[in-house]
Design brief:
Blueprint (H helix, E strand, L loop, with lengths): L11 E3 L6 E3 L3 E5 L3 H6 L10 E5 L4 E2 L4 E2 L8 E3 L1 E7 L15 E8 L2 E2 H10 L4 H4 L5 E2 L4 E2 L10 E6 L2 E7 L7 H11 L7 E3 L7 E2 L5 E6 L5 E5 L1
Parallel strand pairs: 3-15, 5-11, 6-18
Antiparallel strand pairs: 1-2, 3-4, 7-10, 7-16, 8-9, 8-15, 9-12, 13-14, 13-17, 17-18
The structure holds manganese (II) ion.
């Protein structure tokens, strides 16, 4: 048996200090997971259950890559996020064993066509056009979990052309990394290769062609993305 056309290339992310790459299976993203960001988007950051949207695996973009300004938007936004890379199959994780399933962590950017997302929200429609477009998930090299002990109390920041736009700490996540894994693994069987973008802090805003975005998280490789 053959395929009727060449099977798509496996999407993947670099691994810090390794020649091997992390094959990406799915990309889950958590909505409104920092209180100050929920407020800036016009929502009450009470501790309602976390909610999710997804991006296709091949939306992932390597560190240093140039991202074309996407079509059908006039309001492309950056969102600095801690990315969790799953390394073991996981169903109904507990708080005690959740982190056992983590391969590592990376700095990511949940690029968003904010105008299309806002239109979807107003009409009660899915967010795919606002969130799941081509090249919408830049991700820096993944650091092994064993080398990221302080990841749940790490500064997370973002600059555009060197100007600081977001500056927070992962200890402000409404739903912590283990709590997200517990919740998400109750909804889906998580498998090796799944990435979880855990949500962005306050300070989101637009970028235009020519802008260079840096996302930093203490202890991880900085992510650079140029919009072209
Ligand atoms: Mn986000």
């Amino acid at each position: 048996m053959g395929f009727v056309f060449d099977a798509p290339k496996q999407a993947s992310v670099a691994i810090h200090n390794s020649a091997d790459r992390f094959p990406v299976r799915r990309i889950f993203c958590v909505g409104r997971n920092y209180a100050a960001h929920a407020r800036e988007m016009g929502h009450d950051p009470d501790r309602e259950a976390p909610f999710y949207f997804t991006k296709p695996a091949d939306a992932v973009v390597d560190n240093g890559a140039q991202v074309p300004y996407p079509p059908k938007t006039e309001n492309l936004h950056y969102e600095a996020e801690l990315v969790v890379a799953i390394g073991k199959e996981c169903t109904n994780a507990t708080l005690e064993n959740a982190l056992d399933h983590v391969f590592g962590y990376a700095a990511g950017n949940d690029l968003t066509r904010r105008d299309l997302q806002s239109q979807s929200k107003q009409k009660g429609r899915p967010w795919d056009t606002g969130k799941a477009f081509d090249h919408s998930a830049p991700c820096a090299p993944i650091h092994l979990a064993t080398d990221a002990d302080d990841i749940e109390k790490a500064r997370i920041w973002l600059t555009v052309n060197g100007d600081i736009k977001q500056d927070s700490n992962t200890n402000k996540l409404i739903w912590s990394v283990p709590e997200v894994i517990v919740n998400l693994s109750g909804l889906f069987t998580l498998k090796p290769g799944d990435l979880i973008y855990t949500g962005t802090p306050e300070g989101v805003g637009p970028v235009v062609k020519g802008d260079v975005i840096h996302v930093g998280i203490d202890g991880l490789t900085e992510l650079e993305t140029k919009i072209v």
